[in-house]
Design goal:
Length: 112
């Protein structure tokens, strides 16, 4: 027989664990770099830019477009890296709570 009360309890527990995991996303950081490490960007799990480090020899007003491109590339790499870490954190927080349904991505469902 289907236990609706038990199911609702599991859903509330899952929601609580997801909220807790989302609270921890600000503590997760990832770095991306470009230009052989001459531009480094750090982001957190909430996809907020935390820092940009640029090697001084890249600062040349005649090549500003190159520097801008390197910053964008490094930021995109950092965002990709933190996405992997964030998904792992959310999956860890909800492991054993829900069945593994192919195509169902809980991280995207609850990620704000």
């Amino acid at each position: 027989m289907f236990d609706m009360a038990g199911m609702m309890g599991k859903v509330k527990e899952l929601q609580s664990k997801m909220e807790e995991a989302q609270g921890k996303l600000g503590d997760i950081t990832a770095e991306g770099e470009s230009g052989a490490g001459m531009v480094k960007v750090t982001v957190n799990g909430k996809k907020e830019l935390q820092s940009v480090v640029i090697e001084p020899e890249l600062i040349n007003k005649d090549e500003i477009e190159i520097l801008q491109d390197l910053i964008v590339a490094a930021a995109n790499k950092a965002l990709q890296n933190v996405e992997v870490k964030s998904k792992a954190e959310l999956q860890n927080a909800t492991s054993g709570m829900m069945p593994n349904i192919p195509g169902m991505d809980l991280g995207s469902m609850f990620n704000k």
